[in-house]
Amino acid sequence: MQVFIAQVINGLSLGSIYVLLVTGFNLLLLVAMIIHFSYPQVVVFSMYITWVVLQATGNNLFLGILAGVVSSVVLNLVSAPLFQKVMKKRGEVDINSTMVLSMGIGMIITDVLSHTFNNGLPIAFPDSLSSSAPLLRIGLISVLTGQVWSLAVGIIAVSAFFLLLYRTRPGRAFRAIAEDPNGARLVGIPLLRTGLYSYALSGVLGGIIAVLLAMLLGTASPGLGEQVAHKVLAVSIIAGLGNLAGGLVVGLFLGILEAIVQGYISGSWSNAIAFVIMLVVILVRPRGLFGSKL
Amino acid sequence: MKKSLGILLAAALLFSIVGCQQPAPKEWTVPFLNSLTGAIASIGEYLEWGAERAAKEINDAGGIKGKPVKIVGVDTALDPQKGSVEMARLVKDSLVTLGPVPEPVIMAAMPIAVENGMMSITATTSLEYAQKFFPWTISWFPSTEDRLAPLVAAWGKQFPDMKKVVQFVEPYGPWPGMADAHAKGLSGLGITMLDKVEVPTDAVTFGPLVVKALNEKPDGIVFVTAADKAAKLIKELKSRGWKNMDHLLVFSSADAPELYATGAKDINGIEIYNYINPNLDSPRWNAFKQAYADAHNGQQPPSLSTNYYDAVYMIKEAIEKTGVTGSPSKLKAERKLIADYLQNVKGFHGIMFDWDMKDGIPTNKPTYIFKIEDGKKVLVQEVKG
Amino acid sequence: MPLPLYYFLAITAVNVLLAWSLYLPYRVAHLHFITVANMAISGYSAAFLVMTLHVPFGWALLVGFALGALVGFIVSLFIGDAPTFAVVIVGFTFIYITRTVIENLKAVGGTMGIFGLPNIGGNPVTHRWVIIAILYGLLLVVGFLIHRFEHSRLGRAASAVFVDKDLAASLGIDIKKLGMLVQTASCTIAGGCGVLYGFIYKSFHLDFFTFALVGIAMTIIFVGGYATLWGSVVLAPILYGVPLLFPAAIQSWRIVIYGAALILVLVLKPEGFITRRFVYSIESFLSGNRKKRNTP
Hints:
The complex is a heterotrimer of chains A (294), B (385) and C (296). Helices cover 73% and strands 4% of the residues of chain A. Chain A has 294 residues and is mainly α. The radius of gyration of chain A is 19 Å and the shape is globular. The mean pLDDT of chain A is 87. Chain B has two domains: 28-141 and 288-352, Response regulator (Rossmann fold, 3-Layer(aba) Sandwich); 144-274 and 367-383, Response regulator (Rossmann fold, 3-Layer(aba) Sandwich), CATH 3.40.50.2300. In chain B, strands 5, 6, 7, 8, 9, 10, 15 and 16 form an eight-stranded mixed beta sheet that branches. In chain B, β5 (164-169), α7 (175-187) and β6 (192-193) form a beta-alpha-beta unit. In chain B, α9 runs parallel beside α10 (257-263). Chain C folds into two domains: 3-208, no CATH class; 210-296. Chain C has 13 helices and no strands. The longest helix of chain C has 27 residues, at 124-150. Chain C starts with a helix and ends with a helix. Chains in contact: A-B, A-C, B-C. At the A-B interface, α1, α4, β1, α9 and α10 of A face α2, β7, α8, α9 and α10 of B.
């Protein structure tokens, strides 16, 4: 029983990574109609900027976190016009062009990271941000600070963005621009300003995710984003594109599933088994388990 | 008409004579098929650094037979498509090459070197890969089973209390075979080998794997994974209460900067095996270490950084001892001379130790077990084969 | 034939065929990434047949095609009319499953791979000419078939499905059968491609068939032009060949240059270099010239 509980906690920890990344991914989908396949690479870039500032300021957490958030916002704002340009028709999810464009962005980010930061070696965050000392340890069960924060913030972020997008005027404005820019303009929504806010918002979330991943993982490497990108896309599809709550549930479920398979069956089969289960789900419910929000 | 024909014939004869007697080039160009971009660019960088370092030393001492040696980095970007076409370009004129790196590119590119009878020194892969391409490469390492079984047994012998060992194994290239060799060595001591814990290549968290391993209540753990994964597994173990750090053994392929960068103080006390001893006190090695530190913000040279350093010196020795001229007209014959020499070189003076090759396999390379203390390797024992 | 030219031609042909194997299902808006898994399955199977059972290469190649077709057909029974994203998941799943199975299968070398595939025809020179002949023969045949498909009712039906699936269905187009046809064809091409890919290198390694190959194929299609088969033909040699010409100093930044070029092309020409309109204008020009020549 202890082992099972430990694995479930491990699974929640892994799942919280997926939840955070899928939330940011879905947010971009909802406010900008972008399938940002390389969103995890953008987050990893912010992790690196956080690390650089921490190194330069003697581990000043406030400045490090601020730098991570600002870098994510800037990257989002810089890439926004590129995505807008390639999308054929607003109001439709153009997976293909935006996916390939984001692949290009991801390639550049990964290569720049491996060339210019720490000689391409992994970076390690200071203990003040990512302590591996457990909050709670009973036998094999171990709970770290980073795990608690990631899961808590993941749930709060999903709830907060859900409320923002579906229960507030600015949120409805963001969605209106994404779904029908002409219609949005007709009803008086300022396109440019609102569009910029929406990208900035997802950038802020990206920066927060970067800090949380730094707390949870303690390290980062140039290839970290690529390692999880397929799963992030898969979780979003299985949950239902743009479905924030669905992303939370499926992200956590995938994390727990992987942990259970790795713990009880085999590590090398965890990806295959996880994807087979997702495959069965998508064949039974092609629009995702909880329905697409697009 | 007859006069014109005669002039043409004479010109053709003259050109053919000149072509046959084409002078040797002014420098020894040694291309190095390496992964300078992509996922292992950081490894490719220090491999190339080692080769360039050797070239610099050789040139400062007068070159090879009076001519400078030039290492030309050829990026394969971990891409078999690129590796194959680059090797195809190199086999036309090159006397000998270094690399390729790593295994997927070796598989794609080495058949080309073999077909064209050109030695290409793959100094970072296992014998099991290298021997498929003999005699046109040499192995930097002896047979996995012959070497690793007694080595890991030597580690196990230190701890009579160690009755059960588990291995974390990543499914890449020769690593599962190395894990089998470890198991053989430890089983020979009467240690029970628990089921291997397979580590997915794209794992980002390691809690589930560590819990699985710890649930078996092992006394010792061996890590056969990439360096950064080994470090993360160790950190996870520590956070779950693992205390006997010296009962953790990391294999040689994980003895890379990523282990130290990721593990930091959490890897203090673990043991690691490798083929070079960084604590050696010799002018040559001390100069190498200093130069590496100067070029890499004070870092210690990784173990693989010496491989291509030695490979370049091997090429130097082969050229000098076999009388190779580098003349393009003798390319085929001189390639064979170099290959034959390197396959059975005797008493080669490597940067760390002298060794012999027999039919492409090193026969007397030492292996060492170290303990990590404050990010540095402290020698525990030398294990002779 | 100079050796670099052989590898350039051979690998370019494989990349074009791989891109076409993705292009066909994309005509009905399916991103059918299973093709990479097909390459691995057929390639390893053929290598096993040749190395272990000493089956002649020709038969092994046919088995590769057949296996690709079988896998594609069976999978298409379930996803012939599935939404795009479901097809994406299927592709990812098969890639993971294939890799895991091969990793654990000692009979095909496991993580070590398969070495030393024999020369077709007994010597390297014949081997290369046979490979080139088969690849370019395949290019001609497959290209012809895709061209005929595009200029047929099936092709027009596929275009309709691409634009609006529901409308296409209401016009009487059997979405599922069309999806099954293109998916099966795509997997058949990929299967044969996988066999030839390994025989170019005379070895097989798991890392020959990764998600990176998906990325290459996607780039060829979307930058070359996703609305016509000619985009792949034009871009594949450029994508493969141009970076080989970079000087050494720029080589280390190759990936950044590549990514930037990708972004630039997509921003400036979202449909890719070769658009359908461009192809139509060329075809009209050529047919116009033919009319003039035929007119007395």
